[in-house]
Amino acid sequence: MSKNTYFITGISTEVGKTVASAIVTEALEADYWKPIQAGDLGHSDTHKVRSLVSNTRTQFHPNAFSLNTPMSPHAAADIDGVTIKASEIKRPKTKNNLVIEGAGGLLVPINDAETILDLIAPEDRVIIVSRHYLGSINHTLLTVDKLKQAGKTIFGILFSGDEHPTTEAVIEKMSGVPVLGRIDEEPYFDKMVVKEYAELLKEILSKQ
After folding, report:
1. Which of 28, 100, 129, 136 could pair covalently with 10 via S-S, beta carbons 3.0-4.6 A apart?
2. CATH number at 5-207
3. Among candidates 30, 179, 3, which has minimal Cα distance to 100?
């Protein structure tokens, strides 16, 4: 497979991006990179993905910014006395596929003029993680719409959490975006569970 970059974004925070990132990383035996980590530096998303991935090919690249406070990146950066600029965030060099995990949703600010959307390259294959809650249809369709307006490449939607057929059906129909699959509300996620999901997703990713 030629080298591709997959950018994992969510419709909001706490929708399952990190588990989804681990599954996509494992399915592709891709490298993983979280450009901006805000808070939880001792138990970061990179630590979490590393603990869930079992293949030996994946390389974990260091954050471009490791911020101390669990807040929006622009606010956490202000507390740390640093300025984040999209142009200064250099992607890691790799000959492997690369999975990039965003922070929160698309319009999370990284400074007073740029958002997570500015970190997505036009050729990145964007995977949207959607989770059912009151308002999630609106948030999912807005995310799709914003990506299309910005000329980004939407690869597909991954649903996370308990199944909600009417929500998922209307999102699929109205967005016109392929659904890659679902990550159920599991009692826990470990390497074996992630590997099982990765096997299912591998087939779908290889067809694209």
Report:
1. 129
2. 3.40.50.300
3. 30
Q: Are 105 and 11 in contact (CB under 8 A)?
A: yes
pLDDT at residue 1 above 60?
A: no
**Structure letter (DSSP) for residue 177:** P
CA distance readout (Å), 144 to 70, 116, 172: 26, 14, 11
pLDDT value for 2: 54
pLDDT tens sequence across 32-89: 999 999 998 999 999 999 999 999 999 999 999 999 999 999 999 999 999 999 999 9
**How much is the pTM?**
0.96
Q: How far apart are CA 187 and CA 200, in angstroms?
A: 19
Taking CB atoms within 8 Å and a gap of at least 24, the contacts of 17-21 are: 17/101, 17/102, 17/129, 18/45, 18/48, 18/49, 18/101, 19/52, 19/160, 19/183, 19/189, 19/194, 20/127, 20/129, 20/158, 20/160, 20/183, 21/45, 21/49, 21/99, 21/101
